[in-house]
């Protein structure tokens, strides 16, 4: 099993250490810089641009973050690099830009935002972008087809399942995904504890939670938290 103790060594800033999109917006270089300055790991969302570049953006539609209607995947990385996020000076960054900014100073957890039937080459593009990066990076997704693609590429990075749910039917689906040989799990804190996560922790798989907003007790049922809206060092609003 890979040594991924770094994954749970420090709190993980959800979409970077933003301020709930007041002045510092989610998934921007400013939010990532603030996370590095405060010693927090970074979680980010990656989409697949029209020219096959992994770009950092959560939503499928661009209206909430950029004020325009339209599919983020219909834009090239160059077009997205000109689009302001939240009306700020920050533009939509690529995964490569994030790596060049962080330079291994804190861990990065990359969530691939899949779209079934439209993900050909997505996993390959992410793995290729990471090929020469020396810092700690983990990859994860809700989407089982992307997890299969990532495992088939066998990158030297831990791969995890992003998941939620509190009923046995859901656990069965999650267990199928874990049979791919995944290394960790990112689970919704509001659905803990449950038998699926208890079993996975017994098997030695690290569990991180999403998304903790006011210092709820992650550590009774998981190994680390993905947080937003407060400073874990102080328990106060971020």
TrEMBL record:
<dbReference type="Pfam" id="PF03009">
    <property type="entry name" value="GDPD"/>
</dbReference>
<protein>
    <submittedName>
        <fullName>Glycerophosphoryl diester phosphodiesterase</fullName>
    </submittedName>
</protein>
<dbReference type="InterPro" id="IPR030395">
    <property type="entry name" value="GP_PDE_dom"/>
</dbReference>
<feature type="domain" description="GP-PDE">
    <location>
        <begin position="9"/>
        <end position="238"/>
    </location>
</feature>
<dbReference type="InterPro" id="IPR017946">
    <property type="entry name" value="PLC-like_Pdiesterase_TIM-brl"/>
</dbReference>
